[in-house]
Amino acid sequence: QVQLVESGGGLVQAGGSLRLSCAASGSISGFDVMGWYRQTPGKQREMVAIINYVNSPVYADSVKGRFTVSRDNTENSVFLLMNSLKPEDTALYYCNRRSHDGSTSDWGQGTQVTVYS
């Protein structure tokens, strides 16, 4: 079993930065795909950034050039550095882990990010 715990969310002024962290425990593999998703009440959860086992990232168009995803396999952690934050980035951010064979997927409980003008 896998457990994911997010941290680092908070209230920040537009243009500011936050760094989210996700600590994973359990049966984690370096081949697993890790990622960040976000959701606003009433809207579908959307992919923000994902990173595979060779550290190749994929970003949503809305965050390209502003967000950076990284992972540390020795610590079983994944991070999301968010720069130049905008009010539309306000959401509950979730950490996700998907096994390399696609058989299982796990979610954290989320960390809230609120950006004000």
Word description of this protein:
With 117 residues, this protein is mainly β. It is built from no helices and eleven strands. The protein has strands spanning 2-7, 10-13, 18-26, 33-39, 46-51, 57-59, 67-72, 77-82, 91-98, 105-107, 111-116. Strands 2, 4, 5, 6, 9, 10 and 11 form a seven-stranded mixed β-sheet that branches. The chain has a four-stranded antiparallel β-sheet with strand order 1-3-8-7, with no helix packed on it.
**What level of helicity do the residues show?**
under 10%
Q: Could you tell me the radius of gyration in angstroms?
A: 13 Å
Distance between the termini: 41 Å
- Total helix count? 0
Which secondary structure elements does this structure contain, and how are they paired or packed?
Elements (H helix, E strand, L loop, with lengths): L1 E6 L2 E4 L4 E9 L6 E7 L6 E6 L5 E3 L7 E6 L4 E6 L8 E8 L6 E3 L3 E6 L1
Parallel strand pairs: 2-11
Antiparallel strand pairs: 1-3, 3-8, 4-5, 4-9, 5-6, 7-8, 9-10, 9-11
Quick summary:
The chain is mainly β and 117 residues long. The chain is built from no helices and 11 strands. A hairpin with a 5-residue loop joins strand 5 and strand 6.
List keywords for this structure.
117 residues; seven-stranded mixed β-sheet; four-stranded antiparallel β-sheet; globular
